[in-house]
Amino acid sequence: MVPRMPSVGKGRRVEWALWQGGIMTWFSQTADTISRADIEALLDRTIAEAKQRLGIASIRRALLLPPDITRAHAGVGWMTEYLYNQLTAEGAEVHVIPTLGQHVPHTVEDNQWMFGSIPEERIHAHDWKNGVVNVGTVPAELVSKATGGVVDWEMPIDLNRSLIEDQWDLIINVGHVVPHEVLGFANHNKNYFIGLGGKRLLGAAHMASAVYGIENNLGNLLTPVRRCFNWAEDRFLGALPDVYIQVVMHYDDDGHLVHSGVFVGDDLDTYLDAAKLSREQNITVFDQPVKKIVAVMQADEFRATWVANKAIYRTRMAMADGGELLIIAPGVIRFGEQPEVDALIRKYGYISKEEVLELYGVSPDMQDIPHGTAHLVHGSPEGRFTVTYAPGGLSQPEIESVGYQYMDVNEALTRYNPDTMKDGWNTMPDGEEVYFISTPSAGLWAWKDRLYGRPASVEI
Q1: Pairing between strand 242-251 and 93-96?
Q2: Checking phi first, is residue 281 left (phi over 0); if not, alpha (psi -120 to 50) or beta?
Q3: What angle do CA 378, 382, 388 make, to 5 degrees?
Q4: Helix or strand run (H / E) with residue 11
């Protein structure tokens, strides 16, 4: 029998967890492969334990917070559908808000593809510009301390109005923990502060991560922005009746991406336990830098370089000086997810961090959408290696205008056929050696000297 926990803030939950023996994660399961049936049983257990641990007498209204379509390969869509059906069967009114951040809202077809039978009227698009309310601020001095003094601005915590103002008996965050360019590893309270964040918060957080350095963030358990979010969660979201379901995936012996970990709980250790497994399973370390990497971004998930550039984020630490990264992206038809971001990318291109920061100080359009400005830094190879794009809907002049090289998508798919290439090293018929990655968003690839020679983030 799970001890019953009064419905109180997270600070008290920490004390209770310590009294129980210091175990913050409610429960977890790890295996070479965790089946769908096993995951469904864990989802059932999540609902049952949430009632007991959070002191919920009955679930009348529930909110599900899954990632958006760019994480669909992790199975988070069917998990959300399963939770929806189980909670609805118990008599709850259930709503879903995909944690889009500033990504383009899903279409009806996107929602049907990802969330199956969940009614469209119960799925709500996050409005990062006009649909948020302020709950507090991370002071500038704390942001400065977390970033080692390289950033000196505050982070206004503007969050989705429905999350804060509506009454919820239970909030379930569903997410895939994988290396991430801003937070070290994705998910956990990223669902709140990025996925349901407002324009001011998104700009402050993304720009802070860019200034601190993307390669100092990737694969670190506690990055400066993550520390700021943890501080904000403790102080501003402690009363939320919420729980995190964190999944980890890896490649099995047959080269298939499968679930290898499920972690459930309502505190930081739930994230840390999942991130440690992801760090062990999702980071590929090379003894030497790689001369050529070919990465495929799936057409049904990635439609703009804004999201398809995960291929750059996750491989840049592996790339050799003078090397080439080829991104095959049949679904990419634009640069930015929003018109203003698309225009920013087209105007400035993926230029170096130094150039971006110099322009940022004098350019009103960059200052107006700093999350877009940060993206220019994240997507830049910094002149160290070349990026060749093979997009489905952008022309050669468009690709070359932002600083990348161009390859025809059909030519790329013919030469590097994803159906015949294997993940890892491949030797082409003409003797070319390439490293192939079928799902760049599922991991991090790095040269050992870059991975292990980075500064540690600062405690706050």
Answers
A1: unpaired
A2: alpha
A3: 80
A4: helix 10-19
Name the 3-class secondary structure at 172. Answer: strand
Q: Would you state the structure tokens that stand for residue 46, as one six-digit string?
A: 């999540």
Q: Is 147 helix (H, G, I), strand (E, B) or coil?
A: coil
Taking the chain (460 residues) in runs of 10, the rounded mean pLDDT of each run is 40 40 78 98 98 96 94 92 98 97 90 96 96 98 95 96 97 96 95 97 96 94 96 96 97 92 96 97 97 96 94 98 98 94 98 96 96 95 97 98 98 97 96 97 95 69
Q: CB neighbours (10 Å) of residue 267?
A: 20
Distance between CA atoms of 35 and 27, rounded to whole angstroms?
A: 17
Distance linking the first and last C-alpha atoms of the chain: 37
Strand partners of residue 155:
138
Asked if residues 74 and 174 have their Cβ atoms less than 8 Å apart, the reply is no
Q: Which domains does the chain have, with CATH numbers?
A: 10-282 (3.40.50.11440), 285-442 (3.90.226.30)
If one counts every other C-beta atom within 10 angstroms of the C-beta of residue 180, the result is 27
> CA Rg, the chain, in Å?
21
Phi, psi of 210 (to 5 degrees): -70, -45
pLDDT score recorded for residue 48: 97
Nearest alpha-carbon partner for 146 in 251, 220, 202, 76: 220
CB 79 within 8 A of CB 186: no
What distance in Å separates the CA atoms of residue 26 and residue 53, rounded to the nearest whole number? Answer: 9
Count of beta carbons in the 10 Å neighbourhood of residue 21? 6
For residue 308 the two structure tokens come to 């398809």
Q: DSSP assignment of 31-78, as one string?
A: -S---HHHHHHHHHHHHHHHHHHTT-S--SEEEEE---GGGGGGTHHH
Own/partner contacts of 71-75, CB < 8 Å, gap of 24 or more, are 71/175, 71/176, 71/186, 71/441, 72/113, 72/114, 72/300, 72/301, 73/257, 73/298, 73/301, 73/439, 73/441, 73/442, 74/176, 74/178, 74/247, 74/249, 74/442, 75/36, 75/39, 75/247, 75/259
pTM (predicted TM-score): 0.89
Q: Which of 173, 169, 171 is nearest to 60 (CA)?
A: 169
CA dist 260 and 233 (Å) reads 27
Buried b (16+ CB within 10 A) or exposed e, 60-79: eebbbbbbbbbbbbbbbbeb
> CA 287 to CA 298: how far, in whole Å?
29
Going by C-alpha positions, the residue among 281, 342, 287, 335 that lies closest to residue 308 is: 335
